[in-house]
DNA sequence: ATGAAAGCGCTAACAT
DNA sequence: ATGTTAGCGCTTTCAT
């Protein structure tokens, strides 16, 4: 393996001479630089090198890689030996040019906000990378202007740099999802198309309402009857969805919700204030929150008032962030099955890129509850 | 802009007919599929389309993009108009094939460990993506087998998928750094080559010892004299480096260190145990820790014993994780300048990939101290 | 089952 | 300053 990678092989030279006189010059210059540096830059073997070593034509080698069934067993073996001997890997650029596919999936990478506990992306991206690998894809990260988010997508599409996109921030009213759809750019969304139920693109999402319902049932099961909700502002579709998990469960159990809900910004300070207000005015014994950030804010208020989470007041967050995992006492939290989301997303991606196109049905995945000290 | 992107343009058709009869078939088939789907797949314009529209040769268009100084002003303008009119972007695959460069930087993406507070990567990767964009690069993420980490690198190198790598986990005894160097694969490391000071590759790193020294001086300045160290096991070079910041500062101020240090695994449980042991046996009034994970472990012990961080005992962590930011009371922590690291890494990358190669000197960056309630 | 020829879209070299 | 020619390494007809 890779035996000849650092040294000029005869086949490389022969190939150059054989197919065109001009190339000799090119390669000679390459090797001259090489000589200066004592050891040359790596000149990877090409299909032609493999073909020569195996004593077959270039096309046969190509077939051996892309359509092995076409070859006779002994020929196939000879080719495979030559491939192994030279450590041959097809040149991506050439293959991409020819097949008009990059085997790259683009994803805009926005950073987690400072001062919050919402670092989901690291987990999701890792799962995505793993799944993509299994499917023969790689993940290309890119950034975009704040004032013109679509420009980043546009550039990559037009330069045929990626085959498709994964869009993660559909909850922001996704201007890019609409743009991508309009421009017929293949993409899969992590997140429902809230504004457009008939959206044509594949998606996978986590059932936030179910997660919050689970959390609410958990605290009710521990004897709490006055369960408060600390969630996001009304314009957040995800926030309203999660909230519905709380309100539906409370109604179902015949428990009161009046005065027990707050809708605030997703910051520690807001969660803290909301908890203080609710404790004073509605006397809840449990808090279910739309995010770990808000839940940590609630913990701040309990901390300030000398109340012990899990003993005096139950608190449940959402996202199972690192903060939830490491905070003293531990924060019970709803955990999104991001690994499963990645599996669904990549499956949809594969279907979308396959010929003929295979439509992957939308999937709504169920989160789980990780029980820790704040709501044992 | 992008006016003709969704519709067949005359120039596209002409181009196809003009340059080869074979292509007609290909494009016709393309359009037949298009008809079935009501609206066709996007056929991006090529250099030839721009050339025809501008009334110049393909080479002139190429020059307009890559060497505009060569053109006469009016020609350049005409070409640029045509580029804008068609929404032209050079095809990456073709350009990559020709120039033997992908303008892609590979980075292995390992997930943060669950149950720790060490989610640095999200911040670093984002900065890296931003910096790369400014330099005309994109970041390609990949995963690798656990048992054979170099295989992932090898595959990308051999298929010429990336121009260089960014290596972030040099502290693990970096088997891949050695491999990359040996195979003359361009790469830049975030992290010093601890085992080989003469390593030829560029790198940038954060001065952990300076950060810990800063933290130690901070608590000493607040009147603490018995300052304990909770760090990693002795085989961690980074851990020993950070520890030296503590021990040197203590010695410098004539303060005792004996019995005041623990070397444990990087887990909450270990930090918690170490703190309990140290409190019992050495009675420190302050803890400086090698990581936020260990610091959170220390907070656990204080929590259990009814001690108030920042009032009874000072605690400082390392990394300024989200947990440090949101934990009630707040955790004072040393913050790595990851944005600056990314700037350095990309600068080194550019130098390394430039012709002639420009060697970027190694840079050791100084972290800062973020003061919060645990050590005010 | 294997080989020959063509060309994907671009840029480097040379010619004008 | 602009055009002409060739070819990067691969796959896709088509012919054998």
UniProtKB/TrEMBL annotation, chains A, B:
The keyword DNA-binding applies. PROSITE patterns: HTH_CROC1 (PS50943), HTH_LACI_1 (PS00356), HTH_LACI_2 (PS50932). Residues 45-99 form the HTH lacI-type domain. Gene3D superfamilies: 3.40.50.2300, lambda repressor-like DNA-binding domains (1.10.260.40). InterPro entries: Cro/C1-type_HTH (IPR001387), HTH_LacI (IPR000843), LacI/GalR-like_sensor (IPR046335), Lambda_DNA-bd_dom_sf (IPR010982), Peripla_BP_I (IPR028082). The keyword Cell membrane does not apply. Residues 46-82 form the HTH cro/C1-type domain. Keywords: DNA-binding, Transcription, Transcription regulation. GO terms for molecular function: DNA-binding transcription factor activity; transcription cis-regulatory region binding. It comes from the Bacteria. Signal peptide: none annotated. SMART domains: HTH_LACI. This is LacI family transcriptional regulator.
